[in-house]
Amino acid sequence: MLKMQEIEAVHQYTNKLMDVVNRIRLHGEEFPDRRVVEKIIVSIPDKFESKISAIEESCDLKELTIIELISKLQAHEQRLVMKTDETTEGAFLARQKGKQPAISSESNKTMGFNQAYQQHQQSRKGSWFVDSGCTNHMARDENFFIEMDKSVITNVKLGNGTVVRSQGKGTAVIQTKTGKMHKLPFPVNKSFRATQKLELVHTDICGPMRTPSLSQNRYFILFIDDFTRMTWVYFLGSKGQALPVFKKFKALVENQSGCRIKKLRSDNGKEYTSNDFNLFCEEAGVDHQLTVSYTPQQNGIAERKNRTVMEMARCMLAEKKLPKCFWAEAVYTAVYLLHGLPTKAVKGMTPIEAWYGKKPSADHLKHGRTKHIKIKYHVIRNYVRDKEIVLQHCDSEVQVADILTKALPRQKFEEFRDMLGVTNIKSEEEC
């Protein structure tokens, strides 16, 4: 059985194979190109296995021609040579068996570094394979070029040793993914799903926000449990706080659930790829999974949660006409509400029910209600209007509160007035 040897070059093996095929055809026996393609695929060494797998996934083997297959294999062969041997820019130096023939460049006679290879009499003259591994490319038809400089004339040495004279140098347009090529959609139903709490945790950082929060934070970080879809949010002044926050989150959820975090999935942000973060994950036994660069789809759970939370927060701020500095409070409220809302990822339960194992109470949530309070409970507004007292926001570790946002009974207000040292205030009790 004819097979390609490890030290044998692609063109050497295919020459022998095509010689056998041509002799079979001379005897009148039908031997289609499809069988030749299949023979080449099953008879080449294991070093071409990755390339063959890529060809099988991207091409229809029934439509693949012999020339196309050989061109792809030669390109892969040249890349293997470049990885193992030292290369000089502009020329390939090959002296070992199984490498490409030697190609030289002299000072008084410039030679190109292209190689042409013809394997079958029925070649497609209009085809031009760009992925050939060559430094420069040649075309037989001047119409392929959109620009042509005919003053550039040089000698080109071909693969069979002959030298031809080029007629010029030009620029060609090649169709890329901006044209007909496109990315395949990401699979929806093949993603991994956890079977227990904290088996997989998704995380991502959103920000920076244009307006800092009341606590001067510009970022927030989300942690989503894949099994229950329970979400935790923390607010950050900078991305560098991601590691301390993750330690805090890890201690909290492991204490609540009795389980340990096994996998953490994030993007390739510097806050997640720092040496300190990686070292902590190794010491804690956490398998840190990073997505492929420029592929946010692989961290789609966290990315989608970021969008959902931000959209809810914007709607709440717009509905109540609150300033943008309250974005952190709106984000926290959005995450809190999502805990009690159903999701397709957890069937028959809400995230908070799946996490704690019992249904939460929703009595404290009011929708569409208003509370009417008598004017006498708002007498403080009159004093503010008459500029008899001045109210200021009071900072605290929790939040900044405005006393006007809460109802204040008359007796409580008088006590508060005495504490402030305000005197000579006349108030009216009206209903």
TrEMBL record:
UniProt keyword Hydrolase, yes or no: yes
Keyword tags: Hydrolase, Protease
Pfam families per UniProt: Pol_BBD, Retrotran_gag_2, rve
Domain Integrase catalytic: 193-359
Superkingdom assignment: Eukaryota
SUPFAM superfamilies for the chain: Ribonuclease H-like
UniProt keyword Iron, yes or no: no
An example Gene Ontology molecular-function term: peptidase activity
InterPro entries documented for this protein: Integrase_cat-core (IPR001584), PolX-like_BBD (IPR054722), Retrotran_Ty1/copia-like (IPR039537), RNaseH-like_sf (IPR012337), RNaseH_sf (IPR036397)
Any one Gene Ontology BP term: proteolysis
Name by which UniProt lists this protein: Integrase catalytic domain-containing protein
Annotated organism of origin: Rubroshorea leprosula
